[in-house]
Specification:
Blueprint (H helix, E strand, L loop, with lengths): L1 H8 L8 H12 L5 H7 L6 H22 L2
């Protein structure tokens, strides 16, 4: 959830690709669920591996955005 909050600040959820926005929406709604369970909630469903790779993509995008904001 902390990563999603950081994504809201930079680059902003609207700037994220649709798959990452959907990941953020589902994770916020169900913070207690595993990645596999979250993936099953999507339409079409996504595997645990796909969900993990979305986390990694989100971390990379947020890290790049935060780095570019630093003077």
């Amino acid at each position: 959830l902390e990563l999603i909050e950081r994504a809201e600040r930079a680059p902003g959820l609207a700037a994220l690709p649709p798959a990452l926005r959907e990941f953020c929406r589902v994770r916020r709604a169900h913070p207690e669920l595993s990645l596999a369970a979250l993936g099953e909630m999507l339409d079409p469903p996504a595997s645990k591996s796909a969900m993990y790779h979305r986390v990694l993509r989100l971390q990379a995008l947020v890290g790049e955005a935060e780095k570019s904001e630093q003077p």
